[in-house]
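Workshop exercise sheet. Pairs work together: one partner reads the sequence aloud, the other fills in the structure field after running the prediction. Swap roles for the next sheet.
Pair: D.N. / O.F.
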Amino acid sequence: MVRMRRCARITSVAAHLKTRIPKWRKCDRNIDCEDLTDECNEDCGKEIIEGIPLKVSSWMIGMSASALNTFMIIQHVKSLRKSSTTLSLLNKILIITIGLGDLLVGGYLFSISAIDLHFGSTYCIRQTLWRSSDYCTALGIISTIGSQLSLFSMAG
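Structure field:
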């Protein structure tokens, strides 16, 4: 077992992020300090989604993918009975399946954006809590199923 050093006395999140750590120990993805001051500081990434353009894009894509795919799925499910041929029915089922996969991925992106908003700049300090949560696990499963559903539907 690797013994970690106690690198700094931290009194608040703001003080934690401003702690001075030698450059050779910063941001190397190896936790050297038990208080995480070597990885969670001003020089390292502190949020799930970094930068305003990426945050705005993830919210917009997540919301539009969820809304538009829901609309598309409802429209195609309503028109399933109107399919006159087997080929037409199969085509609609494949489109619905791709829409379901894209809906799951859009919901995943929307959820990750909401989690980023919830944690904000404290994510780095609380990332172990997040990564070990059931919600993170469920989002990972949703992301994988959504991607695979879309991929296999297009390949089929």
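Discussion prompt: The mean pLDDT is 82. What would you look at next?
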